[in-house]
Amino acid sequence: MLFLLPAYLSENTSITHFSPVIKEYIMQTDYFFVENEKTARKVVKFFAPEKKQADLKLFLLDKYTENADIKEAQELMLKGQDFGLLSEAGLPCIADPGNLIVKWCHEKNIRVLPVSGPSSIILALISSGFNGQEFTFHGYLPIDKGEKKKQMMNLEALVQKTGYSQIFMETPYRNNQLIEDLCKFLSPNTKLCIAANINDPEHEFIKTKSIKDWQKQKPELHKIPAVFVLGK
Length: 232
What we know:
five-stranded parallel β-sheet, 21% strand, 8 helices, Methyltransferase, Cobalt-precorrin-4 Transmethylase, Domain 2, 2 domains, alpha/beta, Cobalt-precorrin-4 Transmethylase, domain 1
């Protein structure tokens, strides 16, 4: 089987927020697909501190990975070895490259077992007050300034035309610049939700305001994980 295992959004989140079955599955196998080894080891330690780190067999699966790169792991799975898929944060395969191995498992008739956990994208949406029936997640906005401005204005137009909520992210060290650009280029009456440090018991920040109100007081979010939602 392939266990799709959630990770915490904040290291300060209480273990009581998560299903005990996550620990059970981590203890059941030593083999994991991971996007980053250091983060994966911290996640394993969080859920199963008694798990021996030296026993872990970690196979890198990031946005550059192709099936040929994980052939050894796939051969082990075909022989019956259970694997876990660990996300960097939240749920695997959402804003996460894990779908490559999930797709392969379906092709090889290997059972895929999803485990419930937090998704920063969904938590931001349900906290925004915007349309949760119809929405689109766009991932990261373009790095090029001209393309980024064009994308922002396109998303704003989509909200006005369709009523669909528009969700996107930014690399944390560029959050402040993104907020400056949103305040500069979008209409004053456009509504924006900023959800940062989600699930952190002390530093969680989730607010929905109009652009004109964000212009008056912009949050300091340098290097802080955040999700942005435009909506009505």
